[in-house]
Amino acid sequence: MSNPLGSVDPQPTTNSGFGRILVALYAIMAIGATARSVFAIATKFDLAPFAYTLSAVAAAVYIVATITLARGDSGSRRIATACITFELIGVLVVGTLSLIDPDAFRKASVWSWFGLEYLLLPLALPILGLWWLRRSRPVER
């Protein structure tokens, strides 16, 4: 069906349908990662500064992804794509390093072991997020 203005066909947006579930999952991860990192940094940062800093980075990524996916405008979509791509690279690198050199991760971060402590949601979310951003992008005609 064509748009009466002839510019863009109706498409799902980042904050409708499955996008709402994705935004909710990112919000849950944002809350969990933020709480984990704030507590760890405030109470035991000296035990594993690298892991706790990584958890804070993950929290920031989840917060930005939540906000930009919920907004869904073209600028937010670009930021979400960059943020979620960074997240996927981070999960893959940290997950791989935590398997290769477990001593480097004396304490787990959100992304350690590909997010196993979070039921692998940190591994699944960026894959789903990038898929949804691609599927819901506006089609110019």
TrEMBL record:
Bilayer-crossing regions: 21-41, 47-67, 79-100, 112-133
Key words of the record: Membrane, Transmembrane, Transmembrane helix
Protein name as annotated: Unannotated protein
Organism lineage: unclassified sequences, metagenomes, ecological metagenomes
